[in-house]
Design brief:
By secondary structure, the chain is an alpha/beta fold. Helix content is 32%, strand content 19%. Strands 6-5-4-3-2-1-14 form a seven-stranded mixed β-sheet. The longest helix has 23 residues, at 99-121. The chain starts with a strand and ends with a strand.
Amino acid sequence: MVRFTVLASGSRGNCTVLCGGRTRILVDAGLSCRELFRRMRLAGEEPATLNAIVITHEHQDHVNGLAVTARKLGIPVYFTEGTHRAWMRWLSPRRQMSYKQWLEMVRKQAAERQAEPETETGESDVPDDPNEDNAGESTVENSVQTAPASSDPAQDSAANPALGPAAEPSCGRPATLKDDPTWLPAVEYFQAGQPFSIGDICLNPFTIPHDAADPVGFVFSSEGVRLGFATDLGYIPPNVREQLRDLDLLLLESNHDLEMLRDGPYPWSVKQRVLSRVGHLSNDATAEFLAADYDGQAAYVILGHLSENNNLPELARVAAERALRDRASLLANRLLLASQHEPLSAISF
């Protein structure tokens, strides 16, 4: 059985659970760990059964609960390398220093250099420690590439989807490595255009136009069912149109109403970003795709990532229904709207 459950979709958090065969993955982790687990249980999904987390891009509404959730479940996280690095930079910003602090640092370094000749001529019976210079440094890239060796079978089985689900989770403070916000049990990289598998689910990532480091959409395949996933894109280029064909389910962004956005409270710079070719799809842009380029094959079309400030569910629905009026099989309950505040009923195949 294949089951698709949107837990949340919108500018304040995005999470979706996909079940295929014996594998369960979480697509994005934009809710807090506690809220994510609550919504999963509300939707009839048990958090401990998740095998992996897959991230589309590094914006906060897609990764807000990522670190805590991955640690509590002990499961791997799949990124593109660019998205992972951007996420780490976001969690570990460089420390700002004043001119006075910089000047003091330069003077200290100069004094240390002047003291070096004296140190070289001095005698010492203690051999140099080759790791001394790096003792205080945290090599984030190396620490997150692979999960550390563990004697805990629950962690081992969680890091490897083939071994089964992780132990029962709880959402508390991490017991270890709490000082490194970027630490994850395991990290796996993928590249857009190169399909890969997690257990019984095949994932085909494709590049989307959005103002993030390396954003992607997905076509998921399991047991002969194909599900398209494309949100957070400024327009629909040819490569995305090609991917969103021959689907059984399509989740597509319908972010804003153009008039509501232009007349709304956002600063002009934010409005320009949303309207740009690396922003978000409007109701009109989504309707244009559904009317002109969509092949009409999906049994379900889900409109997602609706703005709470610049859209209304009724406006998004009407625009899509008009575009699909010649495809009666996709109207009524088969055109669905994902919500920010509650899970969408699970769709099973």
